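pinging the channel bc i need a second pair of eyes. not urgent but kinda urgent?? the chain im working w is below, pasted from the shared doc
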Amino acid sequence: MNAPLAADTTPRNDWTREEIAALFALPFPELMFRAMTVHRRNFVSTEVQISTLLSIKTGGCPEDCAYCPQAAQYDTGVKAEKLMDVQAVLADAAKAKAAGASRFCMGAAWRSPKDKDLDAVCAMIEGVKAMGLESCVTLGMLTGPQANRLKDAGLDYYNHNLDTSPEYYPHIISTRIFTDRLETLENVRQAGLSVCCGGIVGMGESAQDRTGMIHALATLPSHPQSVPINALVQVEGTPAARATPLDPIDFVRTIAVARITMPASVVRLSAGRESMSAETQALSFLAGANSIFYGEKLLTTPNPQTDADKALFARLGLTSMPAKSASTNP
């Protein structure tokens, strides 16, 4: 196993769209070489961070995200459910840890949480932390005081994806605007929480939009500590269900450009792995992806079985990244 080389100490936040477009346009072998070099300078190349994601409040969301089966206005077969019981969530967290996860992520289908909802969520966070797991939640838009309350409960990461480029955003969501996302991210940063923020590709966006998405992420005031890159999971009943799937090589290019532009971030090979070949996933790891979700379901969409992931890791010689305590999170 190789140790990481000397880490980059000054990640750039001044990337231009032209520079990022030039990275996307590189010959594939050159792009991969650059991404692999950056990866090895910042991480152990054979280690992958393992997370498990649980939907703690499913369906009934008032937002109209074109990709999401939990939006109340779409007929996708997903029924609105109440917030899960705290002990039931902690039982799932214990199973996730036993399966090898180091981070437990909890998602609720809310536009934004009510203050009273945070009582149970904070109890979940405290219980997850007591198991020695990193904690992450995604609850929609947050106010500053809400972010501070989650921090006080011991939360490590808050997930709030930008989804796509600022220009393509209105084609995907009409119930909020791009700057709403940025405001929540600022509230999360000001609370001292680590940020998990990425996007989705394969929603009918252009190559320029993928450049714009990476540019928006890489020019945030500080790079997200975790950057999930999702391949759209097409769900019947959602507007995005008829989008043309992104070419696998173009998907790997997106991973590689994320790695180069955000060198110290953990880049997650996130949703869509169920339909990816082992070869596409292997190329993604070579391109700098170093995080995945374990478990057969991501909120409401399918994910590879844990045994299948363990077999793939064995084939590729990959191991699980050790968990960090909240005090050592970047």
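so The CA atoms of residues 252 and 284 lie 5 Å apart. and The mean pLDDT is 89. — does that match what u expected or am i reading it wrong
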